[in-house]
Amino acid sequence: MHPIVDALKLSPQQLDAISGLRGDALITAGAGTGKTRTLTARFLQLLADGVPLRRIVAITFTRKAAREMRNRIRQQIWDYLARTDLDEQERQRWRRIVIAMDAARISTIHSLCREILQTHPAEAMVDPHFQTLDEGKMLLLQNEVVTRSLMIAADHPLLAVLIGDVGERLVRLAVMQMLQAGAEGEAVLLRLHDDPQVQLARWEQWLLARQRQRLQNLMRTQDWQAALDLLSAVSPFSGKDKLAIQRTHALKALDFLESAGEGALFRHGVALLQQITLSGGSQRNWPGGKEQIAEIKAAIKILRAPFGSIKKPGPEAWLGQTLNDLDAHNAVALLRLKAIVLLAFRIYREAKREQQMLDYDDLETLALRLLDENAYVRSYWRQQVQALLVDEFQDTNARQSRLLALLNGDRGKRFLVGDAKQSIYRFRGANVAVFRDIGSKFAENGARVTALDETYRADEPLVHGLNTLLKSTLGHGEHPWEAPFVPLVPARRTAPGCKSPVSIELLLSQGARRDGSLKRAAQAAVARLQELFAAGKCTPKDVAILTRASSSFSAYEDALDDAGIPFLTLAGRGFYRRPEIRDLLIVLRAAADPTDDLALTGALRSPGLGLSDVSLFQLAQQRDDWRRSDTLPDKISHPVSLWQSLATPPEIMEIEEVMRARRAHNLLITLHDQVGRAPAADLLKYYIDEVDYLGILVAAGQDRAMRNVMKLLDDIQRAGIVPVSEVNDYVKSVRDVGVREGEAAVVAEGVVQIMTVHRAKGLEFPVVVLGDITYEHQSIPDMLFLDGQISWKLSDPANSQKRPVLYEALLQEERMKEDAEQKRLFYVAATRAESFLLMNGALGRRVRGWLKWVSAVLPDLPETFEGDAIVSTECELSEGTIIRCSQVGNSWQPGKSKLHFGSKPPDAESPFLSGLLPARTIREEILDDKQKASERKPEQRVWRISSIEGVRARAPSWIVGKLIHRAIEFERFPDDSKFDAWLMASARSMGLSDKATIRNALQRTHRILQNLQASPLWKTVLAAEERFHELPYAYRTASGRSDRGTIDLVYHTGNHWVIVDF
């Protein structure tokens, strides 16, 4: 190995993965086994071997991962150049490489596709200056396309019949689903035959083959074979015994099932099993008596369970069915849907072409087609690529794998790194079967397949415990969509952070969610964390709470908040459901249409406008009186709305409320006049400044809400939305999608972090809480397309339980694939822990979610009990690993005492200062040094605040206040020659761009600072022994009321502290 690679100190496994490579290689890397280090080492070894930098292509899953890899390689080279034993030629060679690192082809697959297309725009038939359509804008555009398509379809008689038949909602969802599926969705519909009868015949052929395959898989299972052996081995004394008759029927049914290759006789076997009952059975008719009867019934139950009964069909009942009338209905309906979807694709392509845009699906499809069909382009890129490194290969799809194969040719250039067990992006097209298939092909062709199973992340007891849990969960991977379990081997015996004799705990509360069971479980989990904190075993910064869905966040946020523990929520899909975000969005709706009574009511009730419920009732009562009246006051006309009532407040309203109402009316008029003229972000910013919305949130201690408001402004600005009407469409479109890359968020210091498992991918924490482990997503999709087949969930008005058989077949496969994905998600979640894993949730009437798999390896789940304590038992999960199982008493409540964390000013001896508690003022942009160094991402430009036309140029007061506070903190005053330049730069950094507004901010800041400088107070401050600027505090009064905020200045003089509020 070259010395630059030796410096990485690779383990024997990692070294073996990159040594002596002469062809393709697949590295399967379990959680914490150092795959990034191995990939970096391979890149450096290629450089050391003389491969030109631009001829190495490294593909990462996210842009963040690409930045980190580039910076890691760059740092290794700089470290190597720092050596004193290098000769000049070697030094100059590596210096040229490090200088050129920004040009290295380290990027996502979509960035590579973009480069391929932009290198050959004529051959690809794309605009050479095309832009990539980001996800938010893509969803907005697709939503517009669907609406236009349905409007056109409504004028076509046959298509209008479809919309009237299944409903506009289902058609809209289906068209949107197909557009989001891109080329794959379009291809499925294009394969539909124009003759419904021919299509039905195709479906029947596919269904028969799938039923045979599924039955064979069922009959190969261990439980099935054991049940069959038992029934075949026993013999009753009397063949007339009721149970003996059922046994005979079962064996006959099994004979039919065994004939799966001969026509459809097996369907008759399924029907026979569904007719079997488990009643009867006399002890005197069986050699084994009562015990044998129980065994036979259990065996028959195992055989019958997948199919259920005639009255209550089981999940595999479709195995005994043929296509029904709903399938025939589907064949016709889908042909009509096909026409609408193809129209939508045509409109969508035209819209993208007009905007010179390509979406992610286009990048993949066009690049693949170009490489596949153009021999010159394919040859050019194969010469360009001498080495192809791919990280997170388990998250690729078949199309991406095909593109990589075309770049590779038969030259053995691929170095693929991944872990099938960590494939958790199926909802974005990732297919774990691609990873497994490549592994099989590599092994067959003699390519290197290396396993990294030595983990450097977790303690030895935790690793052994996780192996026990995860082996039971993942299994052997019988199906292509499953990932077989591979045990991890601990590389270290001691661990930093939290140390505990028990490394895994299960903490449950009993009862329904609606009765507060999840809330009680979260409170118990936080109480357990408090114990660890108090014992000094870990601190808040060591802890991450991971959940499957952001809907589970609130229970843990409330519990941490009540306990006074600082936390940061890395908001996912729940961001737009936050109350402060809903308040602002409803204000925009009211500004766009003040006659929308519902929107106006929400706006008036929001903290910014703040009308009381009584005043709202009085306004509504006056509106209703006018509606019933034949004579209306001047300037009031039908139809009467709440807006007209607001313009003329009733006399019975209190004077303060009248003033609020008039202020709200005037403000909404100003906003409404600018709708369609000013960008939505400017309107929203104007409203926030006018009502001092941020000040309201700060005064209420809602620092997190304040950050969310600023994020909303930034989101709307970056989305480029001008019409206010589009804001709600945009929010509705992106609310449940999230960022396409799914990259983990930045790591904050000193706080407990709450995030989804997907956001935690690639991260690790000393203590991990798996929250709400009984969560289960129950929705059933309206449309399914899998393996080239498509079916709609149509229903029969006469039988609500009846569905198309093809849909049932696809649904069963979808459930199995989704179940396998959830098992992999559990693997990813559990393996984020370094030292301690706490699994927490609410146990209802039946075991749900991840708890199903956890309970499989436990002797018993904790029993419910009445009481105000938490009762725990311990058992050995594996050799040397103890798991503690705890149950929260039904009447348990968290203790009154609270723990608080943070730093205090020195010498805080006075009675007041001793009552100061650090506020939970956490900024999401705070990064630790390691994260800053690894990312080095250019700072985002803040969107600009400009004056709304016709409104006097006046800088928002909160910006002037921030400028003054910043100047005082850094002792910048007008008598400094560089002050004006510094102040102007600060004003621009806060978003001001209009010259008149900036001038106003500077004038007001100058005046106030000059007054301060001239005051005796400032001379005293300058002479102080110690002083602290912008000091967060939380203070609890004797009555128990809490107050929190930020002290402008605290200084120490003589023997006392002085607090200054500017």
**What is the terminal separation in angstroms?**
64 Å
Helix content: 40-55%
Q: Give unreliable regions as ranges.
A: 736-747, 896-950
Number of strands: 24
Taking the sheet with the most strands, its summary is:
8 strands, mixed
Structural class: alpha/beta
The helix tally amounts to 42
- The CATH topology of the largest domain comes to Rossmann fold
Q: Any idea what the shape is?
A: globular
State the name of the first-level CATH class of the largest domain: Alpha Beta
The portion of residues forming beta strands comes to: 5-15%
Rg calc: 33 Å
Can you offer a commentary on this structure?
With 1062 residues, this protein is α/β, with parallel strands linked by helices. It folds into 6 domains: 221 residues, Rossmann fold (3-Layer(aba) Sandwich), CATH 3.40.50.300; 94 residues, no CATH class; 100 residues; 170 residues, Rossmann fold (3-Layer(aba) Sandwich); 160 residues, PCRA, domain 4, CATH 1.10.486.10; 150 residues, no CATH class. It is 50% helix and 12% strand. It has 42 helices and 24 strands. The protein has an 8-stranded mixed beta sheet. Strands 3-2-6-7-1-8 form a 6-stranded parallel beta sheet, with helices on both faces. The chain has a 4-stranded antiparallel beta sheet with strand order 21-22-23-24. The two termini are 64 Å apart. The relative contact order is 0.10. About 6% of the residues have low confidence.
